[in-house]
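Go through this chain for my students:
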Amino acid sequence: MNNNTKLAALVSLMLTLPVSQVNALQSIEEDSLRNVSGQSGVDIDLNFEGTIGRAYFETQGNSLNMRNINIDTDGVGDGSGVDRPLNMVLDLVTRGEKSGLAISISGINDMDITLDQINVNGDDTAGAILNQNNSYGGLALTNINDHGGVTDINIFARGASGEEGVQIEMNLPEILSLDLAYTDYGADNNVSTDDFVFGGELTLNNFTAISSVDLTSGTNDAGEEIGGLHIGVIAQTGDITLSNMRAGNQQGSMGRLVLNGYRMTPDSYLTIQGK
């Protein structure tokens, strides 16, 4: 059968299909396309070292402020001649009434992320880096390594379902290790001699977390208006190990904390507020 004969046979077959069958095929195709996500996406190789003076997330008049954010994707600094980019695949996803962003990350090798200040509803001027009232302190996540695995993150806006905030779903690789350091700046909320640091070597195994994240506001014991961060647990499982724990100016290690079979059930939540 030559090409012209094949084409004629195909056209004849389509013409003999009942209209209802043609409409059904069209409906199936449209429904499939409507529900498919991740058909295109963007593939990015990223080697980045830089500083963000201020970033904030705002909802319902409350804002989560993060200041002096330093990011180094390979942890070796400028001028090293080392080129170890991490790979990111970005795509838009839809689930029911919720739409969001899907991020798949691989090749994480000694990445560093540090934040000098974290607070809710603090000074929102771009130049105000320190002197933050009700600061949660600073956070350093360094030497982050995925050990050849893949980190999958979905971020959904909750507004379409009548809720505020975002829903974050994280499926970490089989092993994710990093050095953790949290700094409490003390009563003056500034870097000084009364700073208290707690940290250690953190390892997460087969860790999955699905959480809702929203901002709240209230008052402290002194009657001052303060903001808070509310994290609602939808699902959270995995194994957690914190080795070589250190606190304050203590010399040496406090030991190791191991949580096996860690699981948080739905309706669990964590609310963080300044004093």
User: Anything to note?
Assistant: Helices lie at 3-16, 19-35. Residues 41-273 form one domain. The two ends are 83 Å apart (CA to CA).
